[in-house]
Amino acid sequence: MSTKKPEPPANPFAKLAALRDELPAGPAAPAPKPPAGPARAVVRYERKGRGGKEVTVVEKLDVKPAELETWAKDLKQALGTGGMVEDGAIVLQGDVRARVEKLLLARGVRKVTVG
After folding, report:
1. CB distance 79 to 96 below 8 Å
2. Is 99 within 8 Å of 79 (Cβ atoms)?
3. Where are the domains of the chain?
4. pTM value > 0.85
5. What does the pLDDT look like over 61-115, one tens digit per residue?
6. Which of 62, 65, 66 lies closest to 104, judged by CA?
7. Which CATH topology does 37-114 take?
8. CA proximity to 86, closest of 59, 47, 54
9. Using one digit for the tens of pLDDT, what is the confidence trace for 31-46?
């Protein structure tokens, strides 16, 4: 008895791998578009009437109330801070104006005014 292993079958795609470099380049991938969001947002800092506590208010988003809750939840999670929706505006705990601006632009808000 011989312990010789049988020859593996010939790979039918081996010749095609050599021809891969000769193929023409395909079309370039389109650049990713930022998600469509509200036209603008106003971000401001507030302490008055809040017992001396600092808050960042995001207003004039022009989204539905149910969607505003989702935006608030996402912002709170991304910033690691508390907050709530109050009178059609998102109120976030602390002075997070600079960080909020970047997040809003990434979510597709076209113009963010920080005051």
Report:
1. yes
2. yes
3. 37-114
4. no
5. 888 888 999 999 999 999 999 999 999 999 999 999 999 999 999 888 888 889 8
6. 62
7. Translation Initiation Factor Eif1 (3.30.780)
8. 59
9. 777 666 788 999 999 9
